[in-house]
Specification:
alpha/beta; Rossmann fold; 3 domains; six-stranded mixed sheet; 20 helices; elongated
Length: about 550
């Protein structure tokens, strides 16, 4: 009998009235109601393991897959659906004579609906489980069935998300459309690709030694589910979305609880991430204010309120409409200070209830609580797309300490200068190159970011320091008596001379220029102390 006559002339674009469904889910959300609805339409139910028991306990007539395969689950459930009776039922084309003949010869009945979701591998690794436990939570049978069913979406429907159950049920009377089957197939392949990418990324991390560089992986993998659709990207004419990485448990904007305010925009997410990654660099109570992914003020102090006031003082004009990041819980005093001007976002590890009462008065202010602080020294991958590929690098995990400094000038810095130098250099890591950061008493005094010339960055930062001092009613610029950090070496002495004219007493920079001797000589002539770090902090 030919395939066409057996299936009544079925064409792959036809709507399908299903007769048989296989259900095997880890996430059992809404599965009982869904299975009951299928059974109510006369659809035979197949199932496995815990899912089968759940449905049977509810009185549903469910066939165990083992009765179809004629083979029991073995190896602690590792092998149960990996069988021709299952995969033949999923992969057999109902419009091809040889496929239909093979199914008839081997007693294989087609499966019209496959409902599968996977072991939560990302939750397992996020829990801190050991290596063997993580390996055991790698789903094998589930992805194999999903890929098979998605490939054969011409003749069956595959579901991976409980949110799609009602959509399928709505089509049972008229038949499941080809368009719906193809949409679900695309969703399935995205799921399995992301699932495999999480496993691959986790395996690669097991091969990484945090104390040494390792060779890049031969294949770059990344993937994750849609976190939210965004109104637009950097500009209103650009489409945008935010995808999460379930395999990355790092505290930050992606997993933060939004306590109030409007939905986050593309720029909000980008800037808030930059702010939180900066403020986590410091152990003392610290605040960072970010605008367009660059800091406009950073400070450490004994209280968060004082740290905020000092950070704001550096550039109060740019801080308007900025992102405020804290490395301590938001308290009422700091909330009062922050809400005295317009800010887009506050991000902090936690917040006191009275602080949230204060921020609630600013309904458009987003408040994000992360539940913790990330480790700035932890290795992770940063990804950027270019035409035809990806640029992938480790994050800039280097953290300079006093022991790393080489003092190259006649005058050596005192303890206060060293503390400010390390503070400023750590901030420079988070400023777009060319980066110049002035700091005094653990507070920024001027920041020059993103200029093509290091000299221009020095001059801009000094100019901002003058403006900030005038706004604060001070007699001299904030840079008077400060230190200066440069993210890369001074190629000429002019940038250092501009800093000296702004009133700095000490300089921290990587060194390594062919004109280092000229720069050192210029520092000595002006009585400056200077230290080389041997580490560059470019940020493009």
């Amino acid at each position: 009998m030919c395939a066409a006559s057996l299936h009544g002339g079925l064409h792959f674009t036809d709507a399908i009235r299903p007769k048989r469904a296989l259900i095997s889910v880890f996430d059992k959300t809404d599965i009982l109601d869904f299975a009951k609805a299928l059974a109510g339409h006369g659809i035979e139910l197949l199932s496995t393991g815990g899912t089968a028991k759940l449905l049977q306990d509810e009185g549903l007539g469910v066939r165990d897959v083992a009765s179809v395969t004629g083979f029991p689950e073995i190896m602690d459930g590792r092998v149960k659906t990996l069988h021709p009776a299952v995969h033949g039922a999923l992969l057999g084309r109902r419009d091809k004579d040889d496929h239909v003949a093979a199914m008839e010869a081997h007693g294989i009945e087609g499966i019209d609906i496959l409902v599968v979701n996977l072991y939560p591998f990302e939750k397992t690794i996020a829990s801190g489980a050991d290596f063997p436990t993580c390996v055991e939570n790698i789903d094998i049978g589930g992805p194999a069935m999903l890929r098979a069913a998605a490939k054969n979406h011409d003749f069956l429907t595959v579901l991976t998300d409980p949110a799609d159950y009602p959509r399928l049920l709505d089509t049972l009377e008229t038949g499941i459309s080809y368009e719906f089957r193809r949409e679900m197939a695309a969703k399935t392949y995205a799921l399995t690709a992301a699932y495999d990418s999480q496993i691959a990324a986790w395996f690669n991390r097991q091969l990484t030694d945090n104390d040494h560089e390792v060779a890049p992986a031969p294949v770059f993998v990344a993937g994750g589910p849609l976190g939210m659709s965004l109104r637009y990207g950097e500009n209103p004419h650009q489409n945008a979305a935010f995808y999460t990485n379930p395999a990355d448990p790092r505290p930050g904007v992606a997993a933060a609880r939004q306590m109030q305010g409007k939905a986050l925009s593309y720029n909000n997410l980008n800037d808030t991430d930059a702010a939180f990654e900066l403020v986590c660099e410091f152990d003392a109570p610290s605040v960072a204010i970010i605008k367009h992914a660059n800091p406009c003020g950073v400070a450490s102090a004994e209280t968060m309120a004082e740290a905020y006031r000092l950070a704001l003082r550096c550039d109060p004009v740019s801080a308007f409409g900025g992102i405020v990041a804290l490395n301590r819980p938001l308290d009422a005093a700091t909330a009062e200070e922050i809400t005295s001007i317009f800010s887009e976002v506050i991000i902090a590890p936690e917040a006191d209830p009275d602080a949230l009462e204060i921020t609630a008065k600013k309904k458009n202010l987003r408040v994000l609580l992360t539940g913790g602080m990330p480790d700035p020294a932890a290795r992770r991958q940063l990804v950027r797309t270019i035409a035809g590929g990806y640029l992938v690098q480790n994050n800039d995990f280097a953290r300079i300490t006093e022991a790393d400094l080489t003092f190259v000038t006649t005058r050596k810095p005192d303890a206060r200068e060293i503390a400010d130098m390390l503070f400023a250099f750590r901030i420079a890591k988070h400023v777009k190159s060319n980066a110049i950061v002035y700091a005094k008493d653990l507070a920024t005094a001027g920041i020059g970011a993103g200029q093509m010339s290091r000299l221009d960055s020095s001059r801009i930062a000094a100019r901002k320091a003058v403006d900030a001092a005038q706004a604060a009613g001070l007699s001299g610029p904030l840079t008077e008596g400060s230190v200066v950090a440069s993210d890369a070496f001074f190629p000429f002495a002019d940038g250092l001379i501009a800093a000296a004219e702004a009133g700095v007493t000490a300089v921290i920079q990587p060194g390594g220029s062919v004109r280092d001797d000229e720069v050192i000589a210029a520092a000595n002539e002006r009585g400056l102390a200077m230290a080389f770090t041997g580490i560059r902090h470019f940020r493009h």
